[in-house]
Specification:
Elements (H helix, E strand, L loop, with lengths): L8 H26 L10 H55 L6 H24 L1 E2 L2 E2 L6 E6 L9 E6 L19 H54 L3 H28 L1 H8 L3
Antiparallel strand pairs: 1-2, 3-4
Helix pairs in contact: 1-5, 2-3, 2-4
């Protein structure tokens, strides 16, 4: 091999090795410090895109869980109003049964009728006052609510519920039309109240079933979120055992390359020895 000083191939290879191992050590230290395998798109271009998509799904799923829980809270509010209306209806039926008995005088029935009117008015008040975010839950007409319990825009990502009016008028128990001033009227009132109780209980059952459905949706979303988090962790989390090993390897090899660079530079000193022999 020719003895030259213009090109020091050994020094060039050693210098390149130092740079490579320095970069490897820096990457390992960055991963160990951040706890993430992917700190920039350059670390893993495809992995960075997948991690971003999974992160979007995780955050969307977490919000869907909160949406479902908020939906349950709305349903619980409506169901609480229905429960009180049902309690009132039970009392109204009790009054109607009492008034149907001919042992009552006209004044007795008038007194019972006043309570019946007051209870009918209270049903209207509860129906008007029971609301969520300013939207009535039990007043005139039917209120429809859609709960976003998924991360996409398809129909399977939403649960829709319609809540019918529970006002006295909707239950055919308006105080201007229901009277218990006679035994016959009381019998009619009993039948009307029975139908109202059936309507209230039917809607309460629907509310309970929807609440249970939302509970199952939350359980499913929680499982999905956990699996997505695990998948994201496998892609972007640092393997500390591997990175510590890589850091130690790069540090050792970098020191070795520095030593070899010094040796390569020193090897050219033999040329000076030959040059001195010319004197």
């Amino acid at each position: 091999m020719p003895l030259t000083i213009g090109t020091n191939s050994g020094a060039l290879w050693a210098s390149a090795a130092i740079t490579s191992h320095q970069r490897g050590a820096e990457n390992a230290m960055a991963r160990l410090a951040s706890g993430k395998r992917i700190n920039s798109a350059a670390d893993d271009p495809a992995g960075a895109a997948i991690a971003s998509r999974l992160n979007s799904e995780i955050r969307g799923t977490s919000q869907a869980i909160r949406n479902a829980l908020d939906g349950q809270a709305l349903i619980d509010t409506a169901e609480g109003g229905h429960k009180e209306v049902e309690n009132i209806l039970q009392r109204m039926r009790e009054i109607a049964v009492q008034s149907a008995n001919d042992t009552n005088s006209s004044q007795d029935r008038a007194n019972l009728n006043e309570e019946m009117k007051a209870l009918s008015t209270e049903i209207d008040r509860i129906a008007a006052a029971t609301s969520w975010a300013g939207k009535s839950l039990m007043n005139e007409g039917s209120s429809q609510f859609s709960f976003q319990v998924g991360t996409s825009t398809n129909a399977e990502s939403a649960i829709t519920i319609s809540i019918g009016s529970m006002s006295a008028t909707a239950l055919s128990l308006d105080h201007t039309s229901v009277s218990i001033m006679s035994s016959e009227n009381s019998q009619f009132a009993i039948s009307a109240i029975d139908q109202a109780i059936t309507s209230v209980n039917s809607q309460r059952s629907m509310l309970g079933a929807t609440s249970n459905r939302l509970n199952y949706a939350v359980n499913n979303l929680t499982n999905i979120s956990g699996n997505l988090v695990s998948a994201l962790g496998r892609i972007q989390d640092t393997d500390y055992a591997a990175e510590i090993t890589a850091l130690a390897k790069h540090q050792i090899l970098q020191k070795a390359a520095i030593a070899m660079l010094a040796q390569a530079n020193a090897s050219k000193s033999y040329v000076l020895t030959l040059l001195r022999s010319l004197n």
